[in-house]
Write a structure and sequence with these properties.
The structure is a homodimer. Chain A is an alpha+beta fold. Helices cover 39% and strands 19% of the residues of chain A. The first copy, chain A, is built from 9 helices and 11 strands. Chain A has helices spanning 27-30, 56-65, 123-126, 146-155, 157-183, 186-203, 217-224, 228-240, 256-264, and strands at 70-72, 77-79, 87-93, 96-101, 107-113, 118-119, 132-135, 139-145, 210-212, 244-247, 250-253. In chain A, strands 1-8-3-6 form a 4-stranded antiparallel sheet. In chain A, strands 2-7-4-5 form a 4-stranded antiparallel sheet. Chain A has a 3-stranded antiparallel sheet with strand order 9-11-10. The longest helix of chain A has 27 residues, at 157-183. Chain A is globular. Chains A and B meet through helix 1, helix 3, helix 4 and helix 5 of A and helix 2, helix 4, helix 5 and helix 6 of B. Chain B binds a DNA duplex through residues 185-186, 216-218, 226-230, 232-233, 235-236, 248-249.
Chain lengths: 267, 267
DNA sequence: CGCTCATTTGACAAAGGTCAATCCCAGTGG
DNA sequence: CCACTGGGATTGACCTTTGTCAAATGAGCG
């Protein structure tokens, strides 16, 4: 592994023989595209990624950065398209989606973000946000004023490095999604989506086999480049085939390996 | 416009009344998604983006960075997936594609880059490249050793800012492509592709209405999430409809406005 | 408890994909 | 100089996947 941090244990060996039920990872993640991160973050969740491996001096600065908290309720907008960019937001709790706006006004969900992740990086270049972040449940974030982030980056090499990683992480995520949108069939997309969620929940200490979807069928469809009916049908089919169990927003992965096969493109 | 540099004149007013034939811009670009850049770069081409607006002191450093040149022939690989990342590459001449590798081995074209653009940023986070860059014609690049880039970024605030912009530019591009892949119909995708090329050629001083495609039908298809036959059929149809003229790799935009309408999603 | 919105499901249509047969050149070698 | 060859490009016929429209059902919320 070429990452500068040890990869999380469960990623060392995809075919690990742990006692836990084995959850295959989303296709893209397993082949180096997303290099140990897929759509998911490979940062520790507890301590924010920005403070990884930096000296005590800088750590204090980072901590000072993380004091303020903002709470949002389900449906609240964290930042909107075209809105002025002046801070990144580290998610402490909850989750949100980010959506792009197409020329014709329709929007596409471009990201799903959970606790421990940092959002808002898309605003760095242009000074304004290119996507809109909307809370999918009640959430709490730490705003990281970007001028301070920039300063810190100039002072601490390790911090600077972390910031770069964060940025390129974005592009990794984007690439993985592109691959999904550009080359995969509907069932494959949904399977990968489910495995990605599963993996990310596990990383956060939640059950990887049983979780709540925070997005509606329509949002999932938008994320995966499908229509909501297609998503719904696929859920039903997966259930008929004994792969999963769905009840509205509640999902149980019954046969993660089977789902994994579909994610790989098995007919 | 919120960008910190004046936008190129031709972007000030999409419906400008200049004497030139009017080329509508690719849909995504016009609605703030790509905020003045769409898939294309909005940097000056002559002077590399990294040296924009920085002080003379730093300028000299940048210039020192840009001394070395590497030439590639059509088909050569600039860097490959998984290859060690130690430098960015500024394209001085020619063009290349970048491709991702899907789990099942099939690859997807994720980017098309021309002179004045910087490639290789995807490697920053993980230390290895996530995509493969392949020359589509003979090209010349300047390698920018990343440790030097990093140092410079810490010394010059303006340079640091440019680097950030470059990174986020990547994500802008990715977002635009996502939107194309996720929400648009085939004809719309191709129309946008053509307008994007047109715009980028114009920015570089070439004719926006007449140019050579450097990618094969298959590569274009891969880029747009379509099969080569579909691309070919669409070219034929556009030609039948008097929108363009195609002869193998040579394209002439006869009715840019019409193409623009299709890019917007007109039935 | 009743409303509203999300979800499911079916029937049908359409957009693209697949397969296969040419075609068209560019480059090669005679 | 010319025929030959091989890969890209075009085109047609057909088929699969996914989208569209519509109706029915279910779930969450006030």
């Amino acid at each position: 592994m070429l990452s500068h941090r040890p990869p999380p244990p469960d990623r060392l060996n995809p075919a690990s023989k742990a006692g836990e039920p084995e959850i295959p990872e989303a296709g893209a993640a397993r082949h180096g595209i997303a290099r140990g991160s897929s759509w998911s973050s490979n940062w520790e969740v507890k301590e924010f990624c920005l403070s990884a491996g930096i000296d005590p001096e800088a750590t204090r600065h980072v901590e000072r950065l993380l004091t303020k908290r903002i709470r949002f309720r389900k449906g609240d907008v964290v930042f909107r398209i075209g809105g002025w960019f002046d801070a990144l937001y580290a998610i402490r709790m909850g989750s949100c989606k980010t959506a792009l706006l197409a020329p014709d006004g329709q929007s596409q969900v471009a990201g799903y973000h959970m606790s421990g992740e940092v959002i808002g990086l898309d605003g760095i270049g242009g000074g304004t946000h290119e996507c809109q972040a909307t809370a999918l449940e009640d959430m709490e974030v730490c705003p990281l004023p970007f001028d301070q982030v920039e300063n810190l980056a100039r002072q601490s090499e390790a911090f600077q490095c972390n910031l770069y990683k964060l940025l390129s992480q974005e592009s990794v995520r984007a690439h993985a999604l592109m691959l999904v949108l550009g080359t995969m069939r509907a069932e494959q997309r949904l399977a990968i989506f489910l495995l990605d969620l599963s993996h990310r929940y596990r990383m956060r200490g939640y059950s990887p086999c049983e979780f709540l979807l925070r997005m509606s069928r329509e949002e999932i469809g938008s994320y995966l480049g499908l229509k909501l009916e297609t998503v719904s049908r696929l859920f039903s089919r997966f259930q008929r085939d004994g792969l999963i169990q769905v009840q509205a927003r509640a999902v149980k992965l019954l046969d993660p390996v089977g789902v994994g096969r579909i994610a790989e493109g098995a007919a």
